[in-house]
Amino acid sequence: MQQARVAESTKGSVSDRLLAQMRGDILSLALIPGRVISERDLEAIYGASRTPVRQALLQLANEGLVIRAGRGYAVASIDAQELVETFEYREIVEAAAVRLACERASEADLDAIQATIDRGLSDTSPETWFEIGADVHVMIASLSGNGFLRDAVQDIVIRIARARWLLVSTEAGQQEAHREHSEIVSLIRERQADGAEEAIRRHGRNVRDQIMRAVGEGRRQLGAHGIVVKGA
Question: Where is the HTH gntR-type domain positioned along the sequence (predicted)?
Fold first, then answer.
C-alpha cells in the first residue's frame, strides 16, 4: 500500500496530518502489528521531519497503538484479552451515556445522528461503514452532555478500530448495524432510558462477539503475515 505523503504547510497542520496518516495506516493494518518502526524509517515513509514524527509517536503511544521497543517503537500487537476488557468497559460507559442522552438529547442532534446512520444506505463501501460505526457511538456519547463519557467512548473506538477491520463487511451485517443503530436513536428520541440502555448493551455484545470470532478464526492467517495476536 502506497503511503500518502505529508504536504508541507504550517508546523501544526503538518503534525496533525502526519498523526492522522500514521494512525490510519495502523488502524487499516497497512502498518502491521509487531512491525518495528524507527523515527528515521517514518521520516522516509511520510516525508516528514523528525519533530512531527516524534510528536506523532508519543500520541500514538498514549493511544496504545505503538509501544516502545528498545530505542525505537513497534506497532502494538492485537491483544485478545485487552479487547474483551475494552468491550466490558465500553458497555458500562455507553450504558451511562445513553441514559443521560435520553434526558438531554435534542431532536436536531438525533436527526443528525440518524442522517449519519442513513449515509450507509447509499454508500456501502467498507470504509464508509467503518467510519459510520465509529462516528455514531461517539455522537451518541456526546448527547450525554458529559465530556468525560464522550472522551472515554472516543478512546474505546480507537482501541478496537484495528480489530474492527478484521470483520468482513457483508450486506446482511450492514443491514443489522443500520437497524441496531436506528433502534438506539429511536429509543433515545422516545426517552425510553431502560430500552435504550438494553439496546446499546445488546449491540455492543453483538459487535464484540463478531470481532472475537474474527480474531479466533484468523489467528493462523494473521500469524503468517507477522501479526501477533496475544491473549486467549
Answer: 12-78
Q: Which residue has the cell 442522517?
A: 115
Q: Is residue 17 part of a domain?
A: yes
87 and 201 together in one domain: yes
Q: Do residues 72 and 17 both lie within one domain?
A: yes
Asked if 106 and 219 sit in the same domain, the reply is yes
What's residue 39's pLDDT?
93
* Dist. CA 40–CA 56, nearest whole Å: 13
| pLDDT score of 70 more than 50 | yes
The percentage of residues in the chain with a pLDDT greater than 70, rounded to a whole number, is 88
pLDDT digits (tens, 9 = 90+) for 153-183: 999 998 898 888 777 567 788 889 999 999 9
* Separation of alpha carbons 23 and 35, rounded Å: 14
Residues 19-66 have pLDDT tens digits of 989 988 888 788 888 889 999 999 999 999 999 999 999 999 988 889
Q: Can you give the CATH number for the domain in which 120 is found?
A: 1.20.120.530
In a domain, residue 168? The reply is yes
Q: Residue 44's domain spans which residues?
A: 11-76
Instruction: Give whole-number Cα distances, 148 to 122, 141, 154, 157, 181, in Å.
Output: 33, 9, 10, 14, 22
User: What is the rounded CA–CA span in Å between residue 85 and residue 195?
Assistant: 24
Residue-by-residue DSSP string for 89-144: HHHHHHHHHHHHHHHH--HHHHHHHHHHHHHHHH---HHHHHHHHHHHHHHHHHTT
Buried b or exposed e, range 59-95, using 16+ CB within 10 angstroms: ebeeeebbeeeeeebbbbbbbbebbeebbeebbebbb
Report the distance separating Cα 36 and Cα 69, nearest Å.
7
